[in-house]
């Protein structure tokens, strides 16, 4: 298993999200690229989020930065065009030791902030009503979808679809329940 795989963390700490599901293609809203119709639902969608007075350009940037405590690493990721790839560079040496235990709570926090602070995101999410939301990874080189998404198999999307499941939970409830450690957001003060 790759160091970057989150599946072992999900299985151990978030078993309620550890499963493969399938979704009928004709009943799905697909997230694939930011510039496509449902792109705003992507964590990479340009929907600024403010946390403790610091602005993040996207939920993805905020999420990636929650992995770290080191100021130099954080500043490097904060200034990066692609925060996911920049974070990957630093993960082996600097990732929080408790990251696996907080990963789903962290993304729930990011999605809730995005929902609370961005009317366009809320409206687009509402527009998905009565449909499944899936992160379409069909064009990815991997044989199977990673924990976040699905791949098209015949007339169904198949995969763990953690991203879509959390978005549907947020859409249906208007709120995601999460629990972060006391120091989970301390990194924000290092950016001020």
UniProtKB/TrEMBL annotation:
Domain of life of the organism encoding this protein: Bacteria
InterPro entries attached to this UniProt entry: NADAR (IPR012816), YbiA-like_sf (IPR037238)
Catalytic activity: 2,5-diamino-6-hydroxy-4-(5-phosphoribosylamino)-pyrimidine + H2O = 2,5,6-triamino-4-hydroxypyrimidine + D-ribose 5-phosphate; 5-amino-6-(5-phospho-D-ribosylamino)uracil + H2O = 5,6-diaminouracil + D-ribose 5-phosphate
Species of origin: Xylanibacter rarus
Database matches in Pfam families: NADAR
Domain NADAR: 35-172
Protein name, UniProt field: NADAR domain-containing protein
